[in-house]
Model the fold of this input.
Amino acid sequence: MVKIAAINPVSWYLFWSALVLPVAACSLQNNPAYQGYAEGEYVKVAAPFAGSLTMLNVKRGDQVSTGAPLFSLEQENEAAEHRQAVEQVRRAEAQLEDLKKGRRPSEIDAINAQLAQARANLKLSTSQLKRQEELVAQKFVSADKVDEARSAYERDKGRVAELEAQLTTARLAARTDEIRAAEAEAAAARATLAQAEWKLAQKSVKAPVTGLVADTLYVQGEWVPAGSPVMSLLPPQNIKARFFVPETELARIHVGDTVQLSCDGCKPLAAQVSYISPQAEYTPPVIYSKDSRAKLMFLVEARPRVEDAVLLRPGQPLDVIPGRP
Done:
């Protein structure tokens, strides 16, 4: 019977440690972990005009979609300017349409009545002139009578020609240069309206991107200066990892490479290197590395997929390993 000697558990631990630790050390040396952290690029949302904050539609921590209403400022002045611009457009367009048309029907009817009267007078003066010419030829009246009759005839003939010209003009639109001037005024009024509409719209701000409401900087009722951010949004595509690589290992990292991000309590995430600093830093932030202060380090940035970026929080410590998870 063969007896097997009992082995002390401590001896087994030391035996396997002697085999495993060198392999693990070699693996870490070939695939080192770099220290870094998550960072977010915030979108500061502001209005170009000042005003009192009358409505805050979201709160910190909300998720918003592009186009969702965020906040509104008081807009009485802009609303009044908009109403004024609308009325100016109506007036300019009405004047333009009036110039493109002839006179009103009642005015044309009046000219027609005057023309009919003038033609009747011309007919009468024509017959009178003919009669006077016959009487002069028969020597019943003097030549002065013919001159008077001819003068009346020419007068009535001229009056008919004048009214016919007035009727033609009344049926026409205004002159071309007057219409062009009215068209320019209407275009200017429409441009003023567009500007007023834009100003009014700027007082009700909508979300420019989809993301998380990271912070709100004013409360309802406060006065907001022009251009002052009211809130900050964090789109998931703006979350990235920043880590630091020693100068001796910088040649292993390239833009476009895939790296593995790991953090406390989360599964490894893949990210793509998007930026490598052209300048060195003497040390990464102290809170992330106390052992590398004397080493020359380079900042590198990597961006995860949008669906993975929402799992990271700005300021969260990360371990970064080259290669896919």
